[in-house]
Each structure stands twice: as C-alpha cells, then as structure tokens.
Fold this sequence. Notes:
Keywords: Disulfide bond, FAD, Flavoprotein, NAD, Nucleotide-binding, Oxidoreductase, Redox-active center. By secondary structure, the protein is of the alpha/beta class. The protein has helices at about 15-25, 40-45, 50-65, 80-105, 165, 185-195, 215-225, 320-335, 365-370, 385-390, 420-430, 435-440, 450-460, and strands spanning about 5-10, 30-35, 110-115, 115-120, 125, 130-140, 145-150, 160, 175-180, 200-205, 230-235, 235-245, 250-255, 260-265, 265-270, 275, 310, 350, 355-360, 375-380, 395-400, 410-415.
Amino acid sequence: xxxxxxxxxxxxxxxxxxxxxxxxxxxxxxxxxxxYNTLGGTCTNVGCIPAKALLDSSEHYHQAQEQFKVHGIxxxxxxxxxxxxxxxxSEVVRQNTSGLIYLMKKxxxxxxxxxxxxxxxxxxxxxxxxQETMLTSKYFIIATGSKPSSIPGVxxxxxxxxTSTESLSFSSRPxxxxxxxxxVIGVELASVYARIGTRVTIIEYTESLIPTMDRELGKxxxxxxxxxxINILLKSKVQSATNTGSSATVNFINDEAKEQELxxxxxxxxxxxxxYTDGLNLGAVGIETEKSGKIKVNEQLQTIVPNIYAIGDVIxxxxxxxxxxxxxxxxxxxxxxxxxxxxxxxIPGVVYTWPEVASSGATEEELKAKGVEYTVGKFPYxxxxxxxxxxxxxxxxxxxxxxxxxxxxxxHIIGPRAADVIAQAVVGMEYEITARDMYHISYAHPTYSExxxxxxxxxxxxxxxxx
Length: 467
Ligand code: FAD
Ligand code: NAD
C-alpha cells in the first residue's frame, strides 16, 4: 500500500465503515484504521447486533415456555443450552464482521489494524504492539465512538461489576443480576436474562424507565417488564457497588429515602456511555474535547481543523448506530461538495424489548414544555386483529398532531414490531404529510401498521374504524 489517501477514517463502527464506503463510491482513495482485530465497532461486536441476537434467542425460549401451549404446541423437557445460546450470538457477530471485510475489499478501501493517533493535520501514526505505520491524508474522519461510563461509588472491574460487553459473553447463565440504569441497555439486557430465568432487578434513578422517551411508553414498558418478574425500583439512587468475590453488593437510597442493600451474581452498570478519544493525540492538531468528552463540530460536522471531521458517538446527539451511519454518509458527501441533510428531529429511537418501543419526533412532554398545541390520536393493540392473532396485544400507537395544519409532530409506539412500523411514520413526518393524508393511504390488513392508520384518523378528529 502506498500510504497516501484522500480520506482516512479512524474507527470502523457504523459511522466509520459507512463513511469509508460512501467516500469510496464517490471516487476517493480511502483508508480505514481500526484498533481492534475485527471491523464493525461497538454496534457489530458488542452492541446492537449481539444484543439483538440474544434478545431473539431469549424471546424464542420465553415463547416456548409461556405461550406455545396456548397455540396447541406441547414441548416436553424444554431446556436452554446456554453455551449454544452464546455461541449462536458469536456466530452472528462473526458473519457481520466478515461481511465488513468483504465490503472493504469490494470498495477498494485499505484497512489498517492499529491505534490511529495524529502527528499533525495531514498525518497519523497507526500503532500496534510491534509496528508503526505512517499515513498521509487530505481529510480525516474521526469515528472513534464511545465506551461505557459509570457513576461515583461504582468501579467497573469487569468481573462482578460489569458492562453490557461482559454481559453478552457469560460462560454460564447468571442466577441473579442487578442492573443499574433503566435506560435502553438496562431494559434490553434485563429482558434477555429475565426471559431465561435469571432473577433481575433494575435500579433506576428517575421516576420512569427509558426516561428520555415519551413518558407513556416507559409506564407501559414498566407493566410489560413486570410480567417477566423483573423487579423494577424507580426513583432509587445507587451509592456504591462492591465485588464481594462470588457476588456483587449494591447499596442505594430507595424511593422512600431509605438505605437499601441488594446482592446478586453480577451488577451490570448501564448508566450511559462517554465519547472515546483516548490515544487519538488530538492535542497535536489543536482539537479540544468538551467537558462531556465529545468532540465539538459545526453544522458540517467539521472540527476546528478544516480537513478533520468527526461523526457518531464521539460527537453530540443520540448515541445510535443509524445516527452514526447517517453522519458517515453526510460527511463523505460534504467533502465531495454536495449539500446533504440530516433531520435530527426525526431520528427514530428504538428499544428492542418485547413488545418493542419506537419513537420519532416530539414527545408530549416536549410539546407541553414548549407550549405547542397538539391533539392525540391513540390506538391500543388490544383492539388490533393482527395483534390478537399473534397474542401480542400489549401496547399502543400514539400520534401527536398540530390541530391547525394537521402536521404530525411525533409518533410513539409500544407494540409488536414497533421498530419496523415506525419507518412509515418517519417518512410521513419528513415529508410533512398531514395526519388525514396518512390515514388515506392503504395499509394491508391485518398488519400491526394498521394501528397507525387509526391513530392518525383519531388525531385528525375522527373515531377509529378498523379492528
Ligand atoms: P463505535 O461503534 O463505537 O466504533 C468506534 C470504533 O473506533 C471502535 O471499533 C474502536 O475500537 C475504534 N477506535 C477508537 N479509537 C481508535 C483509534 N484511536 N484508532 C483506531 N480505532 C479506534 N444503537 C442502535 O442504533 N441500535 C441498537 O440496537 C443499539 N444497540 C446497542 C446495544 C448495546 C449493548 C450497546 C453498547 C450499544 C448499542 N447501540 C445501538 C449504540 C451503537 O452501538 C452506537 O451508537 C454505535 O456503535 C456508534 O457508532 P460509531 O461508529 O460512532 O462508534
Ligand atoms: P441511557 O442513557 O439510555 O440510560 C441510562 C439510565 O441510567 C438512565 O435511565 C438514567 O436515569 C440511569 N441512571 C443514571 N445514573 C443512575 C444512578 N446513579 N442510579 C440509577 N440509575 C441511574 O444509557 P444506556 O442504557 O447505558 O445506553 C447507552 C447508549 O447506548 C444510549 O445512548 C443508547 O442510545 C445506546 N443504546 C441504544 C440501543 C438501541 O438503540 N436499541 C440499545 C442499547 C444502547
């Protein structure tokens, strides 16, 4: 390889690999640098993909245990092979990481394994334990992502006090687990382990699960997760977590301001993630990080150094794979002189519990805080023929609509396949289609998406029609 590039991407997560591919498609000579042995970053290796693999496996097991009998399917001696449960997840990750190697080759992107650190504005050093390689580039895209963070009094030792990463690769099924944080990671991993019989407690600081989403979603999720026997403690503040050798003990102040102590096999810390810039040597190019650790960028996602851009979890905004991907495409196109656009208000947020939770646009809380007038259209899945057929009647669709013009301001769903149903709502909001017009398009019957149709109709001032 001659080490001179038009664009060099540092980090191969969904932000990095998408930007590299888009830049290559646009005709640039591209390199990508990744410090780990596999490509794909957090999402592919220890995030979205393995978490979803375990969510699917555990949901199958739970269904087989709890619901198959109702369908007339009898299984004798049902059991879980935990080793195979984890092995399948690892195989799914392997397929995805090898797929990325293929994509890099196909797009003629040079891959450098090692830690990238800046020498100056046009050069980086890629270091491994035994060698250093210098790369020169006209542009750099920093896509170094994030790492789990913790809270005062809780030191992650990766043995008993763990992060999501360790929880995806246990060697045997934990008997019990305390999860600090009832955000996205907390509720997804609580679902995985509760479904296979682990006694799970979630300790959440605020008064709701998934507190950044529309509050009604968190309330319904509380009820559905409680059905899995997950012990959910809200308004509770963790003070400390201690590795006692064979278990972890967590001390916290509960919702009645009383000191409490709980012990479990593991304590999983899921209180958010922090931007990761260690080893980049940003000082060499004069880029400073904000107090939060994030790299500051302008609207073009450009740092204070004009040829250096940053995308994904390492900059402001929701820490989501599709947000990182959108920014990857955006930056490659900006460098190419195009005028791309990202509508940050409509980036969907999805939680892969069952039922799933999906949201896009403004929440009721946000509209109230801004004094924006809105009407609510709501349809419960208990009234959906499709949901009754599949015994997935928990949840609802809620659409928030401006009464003046019929503009859809927000869509919030908790229900079966909400992650897929939300896509149509995003298209509608992006192109400012009114609630009435969203109602007038055809929805296949019976589908989960029909619940949206009725919610749009109600928000437009009419009663529901379908079942
Ligand atoms: P990352 O994916 O973090 O990739 C950064 C890469 O840069 C890493 O591979 C790192 O090794 C590399 N790197 C760092 N520094 C250097 C350096 N100096 N030199 C070379 N390489 C370097 N999001 C969703 O949208 N949907 C989900 O379902 C979802 N599930 C998740 C489940 C879990 C358990 C977790 C932890 C996260 C999940 N996320 C999900 C969030 C998602 O993983 C992140 O938002 C996404 O990976 C961010 O992408 P990125 O490209 O910015 O960074
Ligand atoms: P999060 O911000 O979603 O949730 C953290 C939770 O911890 C919050 O509810 C917060 O109130 C709580 N908390 C904070 N301090 C606490 C304390 N002292 N005691 C008790 N609770 C406390 O963060 P996360 O769940 O760690 O996820 C990290 C990131 O990964 C998120 O930004 C998320 O977007 C991303 N992620 C996304 C998905 C998905 O898209 N499905 C899945 C997993 C992770």
